[in-house]
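Researcher: Here's a chain I'd like modeled. Treat it as a single chain, no partners, no ligands.
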Amino acid sequence: TISEKSLSQLEPTGYLKKGEILSREALLKIGLIESSNDAIFALSEPMGQGFIFLMNQKAKSLAMNDSSFFNPMGIDPQDIQAPANKINVSTGLDLVKLAKEIIFNQPEVSKMISQKEMPLYLENGVFHHNLQSTNELLGESPYILGGKTGLTDRAGGCLLLILKTNQPDEYIVNVILGSKDRFGEMETLNHCALGR
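Model: Modeled as a single isolated chain. Structure tokens:
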């Protein structure tokens, strides 16, 4: 059930309404495709701090040793002076480890992050809205399988893309962090990685 607190998150984009009931899968789709902070907060709210604990446990299990999470959305704390140990942090290498987990073990997440747009229907069959990806590069090349955007004042523009190669079960994961032109820089990186 969507709460007032969910709707008060920074940059709400999921077209959610207070009191509305959505499935976990629907909230995850909204969060991953539209980068909706309100949807991810609503998804995590029933578990509170337990959700963040599980995020950090999952990161440890994937050997993401330079990553730690302090809120489920990945947004900066309101205190812009917060020390590094009180914010969400990760590295390019750790994000590649996460991408590997998604590629080989999370097919439903892989499918979500590959969608440029898709209609979202509630469990009762009622149309909610058309999801639009924040990833401008989806659909621009047949080699791009999917990816996820990120943007905060502290982190800058971030983008992870999963590319397929001509070899079966071989992938390239490109990560851009702290960019002022994440899509332009990613296009350059993709050309270099694919040799085209």
